[in-house]
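Worked example 2:
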Amino acid sequence: MTAAAVQMLLLAGGLAATPTLAQETPVAAEASAQAPASDRLGLKDLATMERVGDPRVSPDGRRVIYAVTTT
């Protein structure tokens, strides 16, 4: 396996793990359970959310470029 392939796999794994790491802790979940309904994500919020995709690693492996899509 080439170094570029390893870097791409690590990047993809890191991007896939991001939502898991961003989950609320139980204490924060209890506090947010008392928040008003307007603080929750709705379908409109999900439709207008920016999306990150198409990551590319530079030939030297020092940088990553990605596309941000807005709707």
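The two ends are 37 Å apart (CA to CA). The chain has a mean pLDDT of 76.
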